[in-house]
Amino acid sequence: MPTFRVFMKEPVTDIDPRLYGSFVEHLGRCVYTGIYEPEHPAADSEGWRQDVLDLTRELRIPIVRYPGGNFVSAYRWEDGIGPRDRRPRRLDPAWRTTETNQVGTDDFMRWCRKAGTAPMMAVNLGTRGLPEALALLEYCNHPGGSAWSDLRRQNGQTAPYGIRTWCLGNEMDGPWQTGHKTAAEYGRLAVETARAMRQFDEKLELVAAGSSSPKLPTFLHWEEEVLGHCYDAVDAISLHIYLGRGKKSLEEHLASPALMESQIRDVINACDFIRARDRHKKEMMLAFDEWNVWDMDAVPGVPPGMAPWSEAPPQVEQTYDAADALVFAGMLLVLLRHAKRVRMACVAQLVNVLGLIMTKPGGPAWRQTIFWPFLHGSLHGRGHLLTGWLQDAPVHDSPDFGSVPLVDALATRDGDSLTIFALNRGKKAAPLEVVLEGGRWKVEAHEQLVAADPDAANTLRRPDAVKPRRNAATKVLKNGLSLKLPPLSWHCIRLEAGASA
Ligand code: AHR
Questions:
Q1: What is the mean pLDDT of the chain?
Q2: Which atom of ligand 1 is least distant from the CA of 27?
Q3: How many domains does the chain have?
């Protein structure tokens, strides 16, 4: 019988809340008719959709990456500041659309304030470089008395934004990237840009662009070369992954988070190798700043037949089904398991584009299936990751991903609150004995999302077709839980400390 033994007094690591970050890119309808739609009945006086803001706040997202993604690699940030009627329309080569620049840096910063989040700002190292990155930094973070900072003041923002976290370009290893570079070219550019930004403010947190997929032939060669140049100059290296169903069986789809797990291990090994080889002191952090489920066969980036250079067309709008929510939950468990090194992660993306949230222009906003496991993690997977041993879980022998446990579980503790996350990827119900080593606990709430119909999805017409339900029957007996996980199910079990926890 699968057993999950949790050691209450043995935290593995604290969990950086930024593990629950997200991403807003100028792509498709993420910005326009996603977060910003001035004509919408629910828009506030600045044009932000309040229904989307409400859902974003519900998710307690601590950091949001912006403005791309592939978009940033040809972006001229100066186009997006100042009076809206003077902002130029530009062609975005990444997504073959017309960018109206009605939303830019200052606007996004205002949105962040309303959403209760912080920015993770990306600079363009594709078509541009160090001078433009420094100019943006000065515009955002210098108090005043210089050309760029005075321009920000003139644009209505007197106080500097103090943006701490910066991405040095995006997916520069990808041949699709505007201004794609070799690892040597990018490594040099990254180190020089990082050093110059640190001359401005040594406390900045800088993220170098790592491999954009573990499937690329340059995976790890890229990390080796890039970190060889910039290890000391940056704080973190980025990882990206999208797992899609494609032609896979349901079992294989559900097993695919194993690829993300090996990707993290491999990147940690690459970082630690460079650290040892080049005698660096610090440990490199991982910033998993794009992750999600994405069926690229069914939902291509630029759909065939899309009118080129249109404004904010629907692009990369995947409707997630209940099975995708379980894959997503599996990915979340992988991130949490590696929380010691993965200090930031951004689910890509927030709205419409691979969105946690979907919107109809002029109409409602609703939660996709993947919204729910993200919410559970973000609200209840904070504090510390606890030592937990999962034993005797049945496995799926996957041709692509090896031997993958059908049951996965993990425990986090935040003061007097303990959360057990559990996932059953199997098509059969699975028992799970949870042993709580230390203290007395009582169940506060058990929410479960059961993919009784794995293809069920939330849509405009049926926005709540897939959502978690309370399981009121779960109780602590003899310092443990005796669970029966329904087939294809995700669980968030919250416990509160009783006496002497
Ligand atoms: O998130 C969608 C796209 O996926 C991003 O623009 C890019 O960085 C990645 O390839």
A1: 97
A2: 6
A3: 2
